[in-house]
Amino acid sequence: MKKVDNKVTGEERRKKLLEWLTQSDHPLTGSGLAKKTNVSRQVIVQDISLLKAKNHPIMATSQGYVYVKENRPHFQFEKIVASYHAPEATADELNLIVDHGVTVKDVIVEHPVYGDLTASIMVSSRKEAEEFIQKIQSTNAAYLSQLTEGLHLHTLSSDSEEKLDQAAKALDEAGFLVSEKD
Predict the structure, then answer these.
(1) What is the pTM of this model?
(2) Cα dihedral angle (117, 121, 124, 128), rounded to 10 degrees?
(3) 18: burial class by Cβ within 10 Å (0-12, 13-18, 19+)?
(4) Where is pLDDT greater, at 116 or 69?
(5) Which CATH superfamily groups domain 77-173?
(6) Bridge partners, 151 (sequence order)
């Protein structure tokens, strides 16, 4: 990713952002893009919002921005699980899921005013789970599940239904899943 010259117009900068995002095979951070374009991270956030408003399929993940390409391999199977735990157990929950070859796509909580709030997580490995936890801690951000006293949903995805079932069974055995008896 080559650095942009000192001053460029917003339109030129957004064109460059799109180019970098579409060519990248990994997420690009807002701070990294800000450094490359000689603007603040907040300007990048605004640029990404403008690009999204023009229907560019850009997704903000915990690792950075991703341009969602149609030819990207996507998982054929998904499952939504209801989970309940304290914030301190988040790493254990995420690691248990990814250890079964399953991706944690998002977290969903039901807010009394806004309704369902969904945030992309896109964690597929222990390394990504650790980076997610470190980002939460380093920014002093709260987990969305703290809005609902630990109750939340996750959309899980995998290339096999068996992996999803095994991950759900492991979550249940570890006491993370909300059962219909609760």
Answers:
(1) 0.72
(2) -150
(3) middle
(4) 116
(5) 3H domain (3.30.1340.20)
(6) 84
